[in-house]
Amino acid sequence: MEVSALERYLDSFLQKDSFVLGAEEAFMDLLPEELLTLYEHNSQNASPELPTQPVIPVTPVTPVTPVTQRPKILFQIQNVVSTVKLGCSLDLLLIGRRAWNTEYRPEVFKALTMRIRKPPTTAQLFDSGKMVCSGAKSEKQSRVAAWRFFRIVQKLGFPVRFLDFNIQNIVASCETFPVRLEQLARHQPCSYELELFSGLHLKVSPGITVTIFSSGKMVVSGEFDCLT
């Protein structure tokens, strides 16, 4: 657009009374031919405006650092050994003849072996009146088994009493990661003889022994007072 045409348009718009007509009609009447042609061309090619959408503020996200968790090692009790004093002498030969699920070979072992199914445990009875119960999976289960063995002997006519029940030993096991026993034996005071036994014996504290295998299995055994 030339400057002279723009000046003519402004002078005509100010001098003419355009307030009677509508604003759009007055504006179109005052346009010169050059501007009118340009206005019609732009109005045809103009695209409709899209509605503006509100801008939602974006909160910056803090990157999360992955935390490496150590695998949990869960021990499972495999055997609980307890002792009970029955308070009288026992005739093991008589018990072996009259009781079920018993085994008595004095030339091999001086104690009589007795077994029950619920809970699956084994008792060894000595003629002095001492009983050793093994095979239970918990302290409560060992006490129940010892009481049932006591009742079996009591029903045979012996004046027994349930005295001094004590947990003597606990054996527990767990599964971990594979271990190189040769390298472990170089850095820890332990007992490892591959020709005799495939496991490594390690004393972690007085009264507690850990047996470690190359697969990662660990067997912990020790006195009840030390483990607790």
Features:
alpha+beta, 228 residues, 7 helices, elongated, ten-stranded antiparallel β-sheet, 10 strands
Structure write-up:
The chain has a 10-stranded antiparallel β-sheet with strand order 2-3-4-5-1-6-10-9-8-7. 30% of the residues lie in helices and 27% in strands. It has helices at 3-15, 23-30, 33-45, 92-98, 139-155, 181-187, 224-227; strands spanning 76-85, 102-103, 112-116, 121-125, 130-136, 163-175, 190-191, 200-205, 208-212, 217-223. The protein starts with a helix and ends with a helix. It has 228 residues and is α+β, with helices and mostly antiparallel strands. The protein has 7 helices and 10 strands.
Distance between the termini: 99 Å
Strand content: 25-35%
Strand arrangement, major sheet: 2-3-4-5-1-6-10-9-8-7
Rg measurement, Å = 48 Å
**Which H/E pattern describes the elements?**
HHHEHEEEEHEHEEEEH
Number of beta-strand segments: 10
The main sheet comes to: 10 strands, antiparallel
Q: Pairing-aware structural class of the strands and helices?
A: alpha+beta
Low-confidence stretches: 17-21
Mean pLDDT: 81
The 3D shape can be described as elongated
Q: Residue share in helices? A: 25-40%
What is the number of helical segments per DSSP (H or I, 4+ residues)?
7
